């Protein structure tokens, strides 16, 4: 059985929390039911979220005294966080077995490859490297990376991120692999991007998003490509989820934020050296504020 995408798990948790907060809301019940029935992955994710409620104990199913009610959300969120951690346990083991380099959240690193190329690996990222006399093949298993490729006409340099493959011979470019969107941005040189039978050639200052809803080509200042290396992130009309992923790689937090909100477009410059402040600034673009559920687990709320 394949691992569930993180966005599906977080949306299931988000919908369950909303429904439990207003159990008599018929509209929410109908929306939740429609979402669960829309895809087999939704049903699996919903089952995991519901089991997290059961794991929180009988206290979830009976009224609590007012003094205890204050901590109800914390216990609920802790159970959901435990559920999500279990859901990610096996995929994490697979990533670590396949990777040659893994970084924890908040701690990127720079790799010097044998061919003279360098890779700046963001926090909470994983990379597999396979260099031989005929080709240079890398796989971004998770997260984001910036590649400065040493020229070698005889050995193409390819980076695979899921179903997306980038091929170059000598250039500087960034790849970000999210749950719903993979992005490629070019600082200098030229790259060829292939995905689902289609090919695109990107020049400096071009950025390509490839996701479930299709492709989106946009302009980017070459100086802003992989700006996360300087603990900043500059985006123009980018998915909110992309910024959220960058904050998570720097912060290590969890975010119960649904797919609809993650798909909204944002523009701005965010300071990743202060991830909580960056999260506040990001959600402010949507007239929302972050609310800490427990520990490093957050959700978006109306102001």
From TrEMBL:
<dbReference type="Pfam" id="PF04773">
    <property type="entry name" value="FecR"/>
</dbReference>
<protein>
    <submittedName>
        <fullName>Putative FecR</fullName>
    </submittedName>
</protein>
<dbReference type="InterPro" id="IPR006860">
    <property type="entry name" value="FecR"/>
</dbReference>
<dbReference type="GO" id="GO:0016989">
    <property type="term" value="F:sigma factor antagonist activity"/>
</dbReference>
<feature type="domain" description="FecR protein">
    <location>
        <begin position="101"/>
        <end position="192"/>
    </location>
</feature>
<dbReference type="InterPro" id="IPR012373">
    <property type="entry name" value="Ferrdict_sens_TM"/>
</dbReference>
């Amino acid at each position: 059985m394949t691992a569930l995408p993180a966005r599906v798990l977080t949306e299931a948790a988000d919908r369950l929390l909303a429904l439990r907060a207003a159990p008599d809301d018929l509209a929410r019940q109908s929306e939740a039911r429609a979402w669960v029935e829309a895809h087999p992955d939704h049903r699996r994710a919903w089952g995991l979220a519901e089991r997290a409620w059961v794991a929180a104990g009988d206290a979830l199913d009976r009224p609590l005294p007012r003094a205890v009610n204050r901590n109800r959300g914390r216990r609920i969120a802790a159970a959901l966080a435990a559920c999500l951690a279990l859901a990610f346990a096996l995929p994490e083991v697979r990533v670590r077995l396949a990777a040659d380099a893994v970084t924890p959240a908040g701690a990127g690193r720079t790799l010097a490859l044998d061919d003279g190329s360098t890779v700046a690996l963001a926090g909470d990222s994983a990379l597999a490297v396979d260099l031989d006399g005929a080709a240079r093949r890398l796989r971004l298993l998770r997260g984001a990376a910036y590649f400065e490729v040493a020229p070698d006409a005889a050995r193409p340099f390819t980076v695979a991120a899921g179903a997306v493959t980038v091929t170059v011979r000598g250039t500087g470019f960034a790849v970000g692999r999210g749950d719903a969107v993979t992005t490629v941005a070019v600082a200098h040189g030229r790259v060829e991007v292939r995905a689902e039978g289609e090919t695109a050639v990107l020049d400096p200052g071009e950025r390509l998003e490839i996701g479930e809803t299709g492709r989106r080509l946009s302009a980017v200042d070459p100086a802003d490509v992989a700006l996360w290396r300087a603990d900043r992130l500059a985006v123009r009309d980018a998915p909110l989820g992309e910024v959220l992923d960058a904050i998570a790689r720097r912060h290590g937090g969890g975010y119960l934020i649904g797919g609809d909100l993650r798909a909204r477009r944002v523009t701005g410059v965010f300071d990743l050296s202060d991830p909580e402040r960056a999260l506040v600034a990001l959600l402010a673009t949507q007239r929302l504020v972050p609310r800490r559920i427990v520990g490093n687990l957050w959700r978006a709320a109306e102001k």
